[in-house]
Amino acid sequence: MAVMNMFGEPFTFSDLYDGRLVQDVVAAQGKESAQTSEGSDSFLEWHVEDAFSSDRCDYFGLLCLRGDPTAATIFAPARALVLPDEARKVLMQPRYAVLPDIAHGENPEPRTGVAVLTGTREAPEIRFDPVYMVPADPADDEAKSAFQCLTEAVDAAAVSHVLQPGDLLVVDNRRVAHARSPFRPRFDGSDRWLLRVMVCSSLPRHRRRGALRAIRSGAADDDDR
Ligand SMILES: [Fe+2]
To answer: Measured between alpha carbons, how far is 153 from 147 in angstroms, rounded to an integer?
Structure first.
């Protein structure tokens, strides 16, 4: 927490992990195939944390308490993506919708009018979650094919890291997509165990949202800083 404080103000969503600021990331028995941090035996697809929300964290930290040599955390920085100009142009237009992920429960409204890439070419931001993202207009084949291009570019830019006990991984959630390889937990108390903390790096934005430690998902704001 002391390290994460250097990146901004710690916060969470009230419907995530019961609003706990420090979250245990541990595989859950019976949820092996879940596309959440409780899953294990299937590939946790590429995503940024809470892509549906403009309140998503700017950074998150993963502190490894117990590792698993077969569980790789995988990253792709947006600036490393090699994309055709035409696809990049489409991805920078607000032609997509994002549904809230199931970790937030039976929740709210999809967020529409979302661009996947924003910012400059040299330092782009990415809002990417293929499990929950679709073209806002189902007939928009151009948006669909640009998204497919992006998925391939993300795969090509992937870098893996297997967390060891004591590692603290800090991820820029605005500029880096991440995923996790499948692994086989034993559910005997010795499985992979990470602690996760999310932060908002803008003190003014944190204050505008009430400086709350646990904010409501769906209380959408603009992507202003
Ligand atoms: Fe994640």
So the answer is: 10
Residue 192 CA neighbour count, 13 Å, CB half:
30
How remote is the CA of residue 124 from the centroid of ligand 1, in Å? 19
Kindly state the average pLDDT of the residues 122-148. Answer: 96
Question: Could you tell me the distance, in angstroms and rounded to a whole number, from the CA of residue 47 to the centre of ligand 1?
Answer: 6
How far is 83 from 90, CA to CA, in rounded Å? Answer: 11
Distance 173 CA to ligand 1 centre (A): 9
Residue 39 structure tokens: 């899953």
Q: Write down the architecture of domain 4-210 according to CATH.
A: 4-Layer Sandwich (3.60)
What's the predicted TM-score (pTM) here? 0.91
What lies within 8 Å, CB to CB, of 67 at 6+ separation is 162, 163, 164, 165, 167, 192
- Would you list the DSSP string of 136-151? SSTT-HHHHHHHHHHH
